[in-house]
Amino acid sequence: MSSILSRLRSDIQCILERDPAARSRWEVVTCYPGLHAIWLHRPAHWCWTHGLRWTGRFISHVSRWLTGIEIHPGAQIGRHVFIDHGMGVVIGETAVVGDGCTIYHGVTLGGTSLYKGAKRHPTLGRNVVVAAGAKVLGGFEVGDGAKIGSNAVVIKPVPAGATAVGIPARIIPSKAGQSADVAQEEAPAFSAYGVAAQQEDPLTQAMRGLIDSAQTQEHQIALLWRAIEQLSAAQHAEDCVPGDAATREHFEAQRLNDIIGK
């Protein structure tokens, strides 16, 4: 009994630590559907794993009706999991949610296979943040401390500490095994909605690299044409002098960088 009460207290405490809107334990207990869904999932999961499949599904169905959160009774939910807001969250039968994970509203941990008994749904490691509207689809793993950006569609594994953004999701690698958004000298911190400083779409980074490379090449080509023009003028071969346009730079790198955003 004491272990059950201790776990209930820890469920409440993890919400107080991660949600600045939570003002008291009483408010958390009475007004947080994510907490209610977790508490109802535990008896549903017990029934499911002890052969009472219909009973487990019925408890899950009642929980969905009360909270707007659908957790299949076969799913495995770890300790200190926080489902924030929660409306529209769907967690599939073979999904595994590790300790300390945070899941926001509209998230789907779904499967892409129709084979019964197979691992169809994702496995979230410890302290993973899945932001609002994200879809994680398939029986792969999302590593410890990873972040899934809002509305991302993840269809492949995410390394530990990395951030996945976009449709389909692209991976921002971690730095020295930490969160992709935290410098080495800083202590890792919780990032609400999986958003933090220095987070940037890798496709945008690649575009900026191509723009910088093109600007450098045009500058070098212009210098070469100027050198050829000077050499041709020195040799009095006016018919070999290139046009004025070849010696000038027209590549608008700044305008392109403005288009793709900061």
Description:
There is one protein chain. The strands form three sheets. This protein has a six-stranded mixed beta sheet. Strands 1-4-7-10-13 form a five-stranded parallel beta sheet. The protein has two domains: 2-200, 3 Solenoid (UDP N-Acetylglucosamine Acyltransferase, domain 1), CATH 2.160.10; 204-260. It is built from six helices and 15 strands. The model is unreliable at 179-187 (pLDDT under 50). Helix 3 packs antiparallel against helix 4 (53-67) and helix 5 runs antiparallel to helix 6 (253-260). The protein has 262 residues and is of the alpha/beta class. It has helices spanning 2-18, 25-31, 33-49, 53-67, 202-234, 253-260, and strands spanning 70-71, 76-77, 82-83, 90-91, 96-97, 102-103, 108-110, 123-124, 129-130, 135-137, 141-142, 147-148, 153-154, 163-165, 170-172.
Question: How much β-strand is present in the residues?
Answer: 5-15%
Radius of gyration: 27 Å
CATH topology heading of the largest domain: UDP N-Acetylglucosamine Acyltransferase, domain 1
Question: Domains counted in the coordinates: how many?
Answer: 2
Which second-level CATH architecture of the largest domain applies? 3 Solenoid
Figure out the total of helices: 6
Give the neighbour order of strands across the main sheet: 3-6-9-12-14-15
Q: Please tally the β strands and state the result.
A: 15
Helix content: 25-40%
Ranges where pLDDT stays below 50 over 5 or more residues in a row are 179-187
Q: Supply the CATH superfamily name of the largest domain.
A: Hexapeptide repeat proteins
Shape: elongated
Mean pLDDT: 82
Distance between the termini: 54 Å
What is the N-to-C succession of helices and strands?
Answer: HHHHEEEEEEEEEEEEEEEHH
| CATH level-1 class of the largest domain | Mainly Beta
Report the biggest beta sheet as strand number plus sense, adding barrel if it closes: 6 strands, mixed
Which structural category do the helix and sheet elements fall into? alpha/beta
Protein name: Serine acetyltransferase
Pathway: Amino-acid biosynthesis; L-cysteine biosynthesis; L-cysteine from L-serine: step 1/2
Catalytic activity: L-serine + acetyl-CoA = O-acetyl-L-serine + CoA
EC number: 2.3.1.30
